[in-house]
């Protein structure tokens, strides 16, 4: 954008009436309930307002295009601000209001400039609108982006947390599955299980699906894939924890799991111990240590 | 053309694949193994693929074929030492090698063959009486 003389009206207004604009702006913010949530202190809000104005004043000297390099420090500051607000739990409109509420004090200051050409005032008002809109939109975008980052991070953590491989006995592994089994998670589960089969030199893996809310044809296919892969590595799989309703649904759907399945993890473990040549027996009464 | 060595261990044959399998090598192995099973009167075939990082559908099918052939010649095939990545690839390719027995390592594979020998001997003995 070409630097037009009317930009200088804005620059001049900001330089001359900076203090007034600041106080009007922070008053408006306070009235609109920016402090009501208690997430931010008054002094902090004041500092943020002052920093925005301090960065805005030199930036508007050469034009009002928010994409210009002159606005870089202001853009960075607003990005930081919205990121920290996203973490603090502000709503998107609260964050946007912070920037958009700058409009009115600026309009008032521009129109109140003595001896200004009315056309000039009009143009400057329009420029201010565009500038503040651009800055506000950018703030929202950063806000959204940082929220998305949080969601992605949490998804990854959930995926990692929910696929532990537990060693039950020498050569016996258990894989308690919790949550919906989609193809992406199946991949993670499969890799974890196969790596553990190698490292623990396991013969039997028990896949417990007590925590899987629904089993449809796709989930069943994923389970069977995992079982086949484990078999290729030389380990047998037992599926346990199929809930009564799920068993009914699976039969109605025509899903068949052609693998050994047991109702509970305990049953599966008993079978696994039997296969590795071990058994659990009750200690005889006389062998119990006297207590 | 280099060939994959086939070692005789008692009544079992041990094949350790150390090099990358290309298709012609695989075909040659299949032929050699078939002849060796007959000539050595082997009851078990152990194929160690722990060094193989890539197993494509051709090699996968070849393993299936070897298993079917040796079953016809009264020998059991055990594939041992498959890597996790290879197992996942084969499953994704839709090859579950359902006709092949598997074991984690050579030792376990040997146990499997030995157990099978004892079982068949016992069954044969029972049949004689």
UniProtKB/TrEMBL annotation, chain A:
<dbReference type="InterPro" id="IPR002645">
    <property type="entry name" value="STAS_dom"/>
</dbReference>
<keyword id="KW-0597">Phosphoprotein</keyword>
<dbReference type="InterPro" id="IPR025751">
    <property type="entry name" value="RsbRD_N_dom"/>
</dbReference>
<dbReference type="InterPro" id="IPR051932">
    <property type="entry name" value="Bact_StressResp_Reg"/>
</dbReference>
<protein>
    <submittedName>
        <fullName>Anti-anti-sigma factor</fullName>
    </submittedName>
</protein>
<dbReference type="InterPro" id="IPR036513">
    <property type="entry name" value="STAS_dom_sf"/>
</dbReference>
<dbReference type="Pfam" id="PF14361">
    <property type="entry name" value="RsbRD_N"/>
</dbReference>
<dbReference type="Pfam" id="PF01740">
    <property type="entry name" value="STAS"/>
</dbReference>
<feature type="domain" description="STAS">
    <location>
        <begin position="162"/>
        <end position="276"/>
    </location>
</feature>
From TrEMBL, chain B:
<dbReference type="InterPro" id="IPR051932">
    <property type="entry name" value="Bact_StressResp_Reg"/>
</dbReference>
<feature type="domain" description="STAS">
    <location>
        <begin position="1"/>
        <end position="113"/>
    </location>
</feature>
<protein>
    <submittedName>
        <fullName>Anti-anti-sigma factor</fullName>
    </submittedName>
</protein>
<dbReference type="Pfam" id="PF01740">
    <property type="entry name" value="STAS"/>
</dbReference>
<dbReference type="InterPro" id="IPR002645">
    <property type="entry name" value="STAS_dom"/>
</dbReference>
<dbReference type="InterPro" id="IPR036513">
    <property type="entry name" value="STAS_dom_sf"/>
</dbReference>
């Amino acid at each position: 954008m070409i630097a037009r003389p009317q930009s200088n009206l804005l620059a001049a207004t900001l330089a001359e009436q900076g203090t007034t604009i600041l106080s009007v702006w922070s008053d408006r913010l306070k009235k609109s309930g920016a402090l009501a949530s208690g997430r931010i202190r008054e002094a902090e809000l004041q500092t943020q307002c002052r920093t925005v104005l301090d960065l805005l004043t030199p930036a508007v000297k050469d034009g009002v295009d928010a994409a210009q390099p002159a606005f870089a420090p202001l853009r960075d500051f607003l990005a930081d601000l919205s990121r920290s607000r996203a973490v603090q739990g502000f709503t998107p409109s609260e964050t946007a209001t912070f920037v958009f509420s700058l409009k009115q004090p600026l309009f008032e200051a521009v129109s109140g400039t003595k001896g200004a050409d009315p056309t000039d005032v009009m143009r400057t008002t329009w420029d201010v609108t565009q500038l503040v809109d651009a800055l506000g939109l950018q703030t929202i975008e950063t806000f959204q982006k940082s929220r998305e980052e949080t969601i992605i991070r949490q998804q990854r953590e959930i995926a990692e947390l929910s696929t532990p491989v537990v060693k039950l006995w020498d050569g016996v592994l258990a894989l308690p599955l919790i949550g919906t089994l989609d193809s992406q998670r199946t991949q993670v589960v499969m890799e974890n299980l196969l790596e553990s089969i190698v490292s623990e030199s396991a013969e039997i893996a028990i896949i417990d699906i007590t925590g899987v809310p629904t089993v449809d044809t796709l989930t069943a296919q994923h389970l069977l894939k995992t079982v086949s892969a484990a078999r290729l590595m030389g380990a047998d799989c037992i599926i346990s924890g199929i809930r009564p309703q799920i068993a009914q649904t699976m039969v109605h759907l025509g899903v068949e799991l052609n693998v050994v399945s047991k109702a509970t993890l305990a049953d599966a473990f008993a079978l696994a111990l039997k296969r590795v040549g071990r058994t659990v027996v009750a200690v005889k009464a006389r062998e119990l240590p006297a207590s | 053309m280099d060939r994959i060595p086939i070692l005789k261990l008692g009544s079992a044959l041990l094949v350790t694949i150390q090099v990358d399998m290309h298709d012609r090598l695989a075909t040659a192995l299949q032929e050699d193994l078939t002849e060796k099973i007959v000539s050595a009167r082997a009851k078990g075939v152990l194929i160690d693929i722990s060094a193989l990082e890539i197993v494509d559908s051709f090699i996968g099918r070849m393993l299936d074929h070897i298993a079917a052939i040796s079953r016809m010649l009264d020998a059991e095939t055990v594939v041992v030492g498959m890597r996790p990545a290879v197992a996942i690839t084969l499953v994704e390719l839709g090859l579950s090698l359902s006709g092949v027995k598997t074991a984690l390592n050579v030792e376990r594979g040997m146990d499997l063959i030995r157990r099978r020998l004892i079982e068949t001997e016992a069954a044969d003995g029972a049949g004689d009486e």
